[in-house]
C-alpha cells in the first residue's frame, strides 16, 4: 500500500511539473485582420460585440458626433480623425486598423506588438504586477502587463490618456481599464478579446474581439505619416490641398 501511495504521489508530482513546464503557444509572427465570410468556419470569425452604453452625461455629445460623421459620409466627405492628422491610434484602436497587419514578438519576459499602420509599438511586460494608476504616466499606450492563463495571454493595460480615441470613438476617462485575452483559435488564427471598463463614462463594460490570420514570411514595411496633401477645414472636414499652378 505504501509503495502504491508513493508511486501515486510521484505520478501526481510529475504531472504537475509537466503542466508547469509545458510551453506556451507561440504567437510570434505577422497577423492580418481576418474578416471571415459566409462560408468561413464560425469559430474563426470574431464573435459579436456587446452593446456600447455611454453614461447620459457623455451620451449627447457622443451621439451628436456619430450623427455628424454619418452626415458627412453621406455627402462623400470625411471628418477629421486622429489618423488623418498623423496622430497615433493608441490602445486599443491600434490593434486593428483597416487591413494593416501587426507583428507579435514573444519572449519569456516581454511580448512586443508592432503595427504596420503608423509603426506603433506596445510592450507587454510579462509576469510583473500592474502599477497603481497614479504611478503610470498617461500616454497613447499606457502600461501593459501580461500573464498566461492556460493557452491564453491575458494583458492588463492602464494609463491611457483621455485624448486618445476610444473604441468606436467612445469617450473615456483616465480610469479606463483595458483587459485583453489573446489566444490561438486554430493554428494560424488568432483572437484578441478586448474588454473596456470605465466607471466614469460607461454604464457597463464593453467587450469586442479582433480576429487575425497569420501571414507566413511577410516582412513588415515602413509606415511613416508624412502628410503634406490633406488639411482639416474650419468645420472639421478633411480636404485635399490643390497645388498652386
Quantity of strands, as a count? 11
| CATH class wording | Mainly Beta
What's the pLDDT, averaged over the residues? 88
Shape: globular
Across the major sheet, the strand order is 1-2-3-4-5-6-7-8-9
Topology order in helix (H) and strand (E) letters: HEHEEEEEEEEEE
Report on the biggest sheet. Answer: 9 strands, mixed, barrel
Number of helices: 2
Tell me which CATH architecture applies here: Beta Barrel
CATH-defined fold name: Lipocalin
What do we call the CATH homologous superfamily? Calycin beta-barrel core domain
Tally of structural domains: 1
Give the helix/strand layout.
Layout: H1 2-21, E1 29-33, H2 56-74, E2 102-106, E3 110-115, E4 121-126, E5 143-149, E6 152-158, E7 177-186, E8 189-197, E9 206-214, E10 230-232, E11 238-240
Parallel strand pairs: 4-5
Antiparallel strand pairs: 1-2, 1-9, 2-3, 3-4, 5-6, 6-7, 7-8, 8-9, 10-11
Short description:
Helices cover 16% and strands 29% of the residues.
Can you describe what's shown?
The protein has helices at residues 2-21, 56-74, and strands at 29-33, 102-106, 110-115, 121-126, 143-149, 152-158, 177-186, 189-197, 206-214, 230-232, 238-240. It is of the alpha+beta class. The protein has a single domain, classed as Calycin beta-barrel core domain (Lipocalin, Beta Barrel), CATH 2.40.128. Strands 1-2-3-4-5-6-7-8-9 form a nine-stranded mixed β-barrel. Strands 10-11 form a two-stranded antiparallel sheet. The longest helix has 20 residues, at 2-21. The chain starts with a helix and ends in a 5-residue tail after the last strand.
